[in-house]
Structure formats: C-alpha cells, structure tokens
Amino acid sequence: MPNIVVIGAGVSGLTSAYLLSKEPRNNVAVVAKHMPGDHDIEYASPWAGANYMPMSTKSASRWERRTWPHLKRLATNVPEAGIHLQKSRLYRRTADLERLRSGGTSALNNVFAENPWYRDLVDDYRDLRADELPPGIASGCEFGSVCINPALYLPWLVGQCRANGVTFHREALSHVLNIRSLGPSYKADIIVNATGLSAAKLGGVMDKTMFPIRGQTVLVRNVAPQMICVSGTDDGDDHACYMMTRATGGGTILGGTMQNGNWESQPDLNIANCIMQRAVSIAPELTKSNGAEDLDIIRHGVGLRPGREAGVRLEKEEIDGIWVVHNYGHAGWGYQGSYGCAEEVVALVNEIQVRAKL
Which GO CC annotations does the UniProt entry carry (predicted)? Predict the structure, then answer.
C-alpha cells in the first residue's frame, strides 16, 4: 500500500487527495499549513467566488472540460456540497471590443470570446438580444453555470477524504521532502505538491516564476439577479466587474481586482467603493434604491491567486529519490479546473507506481 502525501489543503490539494483516496490501495495523508476554516491571505481557496467560467484556450481546455460534469453533478445531486446551478451572463463592453478581438492570450480574451469553445459544453448557451444589454454593452451571452460556496464545499471535500481514510496533519513545511508531522518512521512513497503560491518558497521547488494576483472583493447579503461578469472597467486594467450569489446563504460576492505582483493583505476601501458602484451600475436589481449605499456588507475580502508565468504546473519530478507530482499555479481557475487536474494527478501517480513495479 503506497504512502501518498498531498501537500496543501486548498481546492487543488483536497480534490487530488479525494480522487487518490478512491483507490483503496492508496494510503493518503494531507499535510498543510492552512486548513478549511482558516482565512489567511496566502490561502487562496476560501476567498474565491467561486464559479465555472472557462478561462482557457480551446487547445488547453481539457482540465476545465473534465471538471464541468463533476461540478454539475454535485450541484444537481449533492446539495450538501454547497454548489448550486446559476445562470451566468457575460457582457462585452463596446470599449473593450478591439482588445477582445485582438487575438491576445489573456484569460479574459478567452472568457469573452464572441464564439467561445465552451458554448457547446455548458447548458443553454445563447447570445443576448440587443434589448437585454445594459448601456455601454456591445454584446453578451448567457448560459447555465454553477456557483460554489467555499465555506461549505471545502469542508465537504475534507469529509469525503476522511470517509475514504485520508488523514490530515498541520505543518508549515520548509522543504517538499521534510514532512515531520507524520512521524520519524513514516516514509512517503509519492508526494503531491499542491501548495499554490507557496511553491515559490518551498525548498526543493522554489518556483520563482510564481506571483500573486491580488483579488479584492466585497461580500454582501443582497442577492444578485444572476451571475454577471463584465469584460472591463473604467477604473483600470487590473480591476474587474463580476458578481455571483453563493449557495445556501453564502452571500453575494462582488468583485474585484486582478493586481499582479501585489502582496497587500488589507482591503483598500477606495477600491471597495469602486467595486460596489460598478456592481449596482451593471445590476441595479441588487438594491431597492439602485444605490451602493444600500448594499448590506458582510465583509471585505482579499486573497492572493497563485499566478505562474507559464501557467499551471502539472507534471512529475524526481527529487532526491522521491517522486513528486506538481499541481499548482492555477491563477483564478482552481475550482473550475479542479477535477480535471486531479484526474491527471491520479494518472501521474499511477504511472509512477507502474514504473516502480518494473
């Protein structure tokens, strides 16, 4: 029975541990500095919206394609997972059309493509009529998506792991191989590195291509008419306008920012005001008076998405005689690619085990 240690308890680590633990022969442990229930700037998963809004190119879409049916099944059949079905609307501003049509590699160009690859994947995709568009919006689309409540979903993943025998251990690691919390006689046969932004300072990895993408949000009690995302704002290229109502009373997330290289952990109240003003401008239904002053604030949030210059790292590597499977660098699409990436982690672990038997 191989001992597999997953480092990291964000959505990528927990989903990897969950799928690995479905194989009875695997003895799986999760070791992490932060666990569900923590709210720390470097622990990205609790701060996410989170939703399904494909961000990849068609050629790199396999992880998001594989994740969609899992999230839809949970939303439909497993209410305790904290995921619900929700209509999503994407608005392309007239001011952004030239940029969106430029053929750039930005994730936003993929999200707001006028003929996106995901139109045949998601439910009930349709282009919006002219009379459905707010002022300043050139075009848009609507489709069935899901919104995830991380406060429920992450503990649900822990519960599924525990039911499969996974053990959980708190430890802030200095090196990917230096796992002390499992005892001096414990031997890890395979390690899964799902440390997100911490991969930049984890000994044995030290991935200096990692960088934070600061996301500031406002969580309110008001209910959004639907999930909405707008192609840009007048407040700067590192600002964004989006909203989604989380399942089971989780509130409505208003966003946000995408500030590359910014480590600031405290909310900027001027940015928060911009976020709220943008939200009520694009969706007046949020408040009875159509004013941001009537938004009922639960809290302000700041999280650091784990950006990586070359995108996600999903591969195996031998470090000092121990095989390590890396699964990090997901930027802003960790949830919507979680199952697809975890399935690839399982495949890589299986390759290592087959190789070990030869």
Answer: cytoplasm
At residue 161, the pLDDT reads: 98
Annotated binding residues for FAD, as ranges?
176, 195
252-257 and 210-220 as β-strands: parallel, antiparallel, unpaired? antiparallel
Q: Any residues with CB less than 8 A from the CB of 61 and at least 6 apart, and which?
A: 54, 117, 118
Q: Residue 31: what pLDDT?
A: 98
What spatial distance separates the first Cα and last Cα of the chain, rounded to whole Å? 16
Instruction: Report residue 269: phi and psi, to 5°.
Output: -70, -25
- State the helix-helix crossing angle for 338-357 and 11-21, rounded to 10 degrees: 50
State the pLDDT at residue 104. Answer: 64
Q: Which residues are annotated as a binding site for D-dopa?
A: 242, 305, 332
Q: In angstroms, rounded to a whole number, what is the distance separating the alpha carbons of residues 29 and 37?
A: 19
pLDDT, tens digit, for every residue of 100-141? 988 765 777 889 999 999 999 999 999 999 999 999 999 999
Residue tagged 């995709």 (tokens): 125
Residue 148 tokens read as 């995830």
Strands (E), the chain: 3-7, 27-32, 83-93, 123-127, 137-148, 167-170, 190-193, 210-220, 227-230, 239-245, 252-257, 259-260, 297-308, 313-319, 322-328
d(CA 94, CA 79): 39
- Show Cβ contacts of residue 275 under 8 Å, excluding neighbours closer than 6 positions: 216, 217, 218, 241, 254, 255, 256, 257
Of 291, 312, 270, 347, the residue nearest 60 (C-alpha): 312
Prediction pTM value: 0.96
Q: What residues in the chain have per-residue pLDDT under 70? A: 104-105, 357-358
Closest listed residue to residue 145, CA positions, set 220, 199, 210, 64:
64
CB-based burial of residue 299 (10 Å sphere; 0-12 exposed, 13-18 middle, 19+ buried)? exposed
